[in-house]
Specification:
The complex is a heterodimer of chains A (110) and B (117).
Chain A lengths: L3 E3 L4 E4 L4 E7 L6 E7 L6 E6 L3 E5 L2 E6 L4 E6 L8 E8 L6 E2 L3 E6 L1
Parallel strand pairs in A: 2-11
Antiparallel strand pairs in A: 1-3, 3-8, 4-5, 4-9, 6-7, 7-8, 9-10, 9-11
Chain B lengths: L3 E4 L2 E4 L5 E7 L5 E8 L3 E10 L2 E4 L7 E6 L2 E6 L8 E8 L12 E2 L3 E5 L1
Parallel strand pairs in B: 2-11
Antiparallel strand pairs in B: 1-3, 3-8, 4-5, 4-9, 5-6, 7-8, 9-10, 9-11
Classes of the chains: A mainly beta (110), B mainly beta (117).
């Protein structure tokens, strides 16, 4: 079992829709969770982090964390073509280095 | 100017050559990391350094070595390059002295695309 799992996609949504990206992790003791956006050929860019169960909103982005289910998600409201990218989920286990998922490729169609 | 600068941005070389990738940062962060990224495998940690005298192996350190020449500089070497080391390489930094868990996010350089023939 991979430490951080994401559906590789591609996930395709129409412009203006809600994009839902999901991530599961294996280390139950993990306390810190991050979402990075990576455009093709570019470096990962941090867009959200969440430490507590529940929802955290920042503009059009909402991160959701459920530690009991070992599940973290990212919702993008009013999706725009400029949101088309690969989204990386990262998890910081206790006493270990950051672990990254392989990423979900999102395409927003005009 | 980029806060985390990687050089070169692209490199093509032959099997058996020694290669050095360099990373410098102006963020004042104490921690630095080297990752490689392969299609479908995500980012995998090669080495990391918490300060100049602290170097640690990551998930996939075999075939690589590093040097932390100063707090702001962290270089990655491939002593004898092989084709399966063809990948996109990223340097990242973080600041352990930031308050609470805000010290954990990592900030990435623009990457080095390395091709070994």
């Amino acid at each position: 079992q991979k430490e951080v799992e994401q559906n590789s996609g591609p996930l395709s949504v129409p412009e203006g829709a809600i994009a839902s990206l999901n991530c599961t992790y294996s280390d139950r003791g993990s306390q810190s969770f991050f979402w990075y956006r990576q455009y093709s050929g570019k470096s990962p860019e941090l867009i959200m982090f969440i430490y507590s169960n529940g929802d955290k909103e920042d503009g059009r982005f909402t991160a959701q964390l459920n530690k009991a289910s070992q599940y973290v998600s990212l919702l993008i409201r009013d999706s725009q073509p400029s949101d088309s990218a690969t989204y990386l989920c990262a998890v910081k286990p206790p006493n270990n280095d950051m672990r990254f998922g392989a990423g979900t490729r999102l395409t927003v169609k005009p | 100017d980029a806060d985390v600068t990687q050089t070169p941005r692209n490199r093509i070389t032959k099997t058996g050559k020694r290669i050095m990738l360099e990373c410098s940062q102006t963020k004042g962060h104490d921690r630095m990391y080297w990752y490689r990224q392969d299609p479908g495998l995500g980012l995998r940690l090669i080495y990391y350094s918490f300060d100049v005298k602290d170097i640690n192996k990551g998930e996939i350190s075999d075939g690589y070595s590093v040097s932390r020449q100063a707090q702001a500089k962290f270089s990655l070497s491939l002593e004898s390059a092989i084709p399966n080391q063809t990948a996109l390489y990223f340097c990242a930094t973080s600041d352990s002295r930031a308050p609470g868990r805000s010290n954990q996010p990592q900030h990435f350089g623009d990457g080095t695309r390395l091709s070994i023939l």
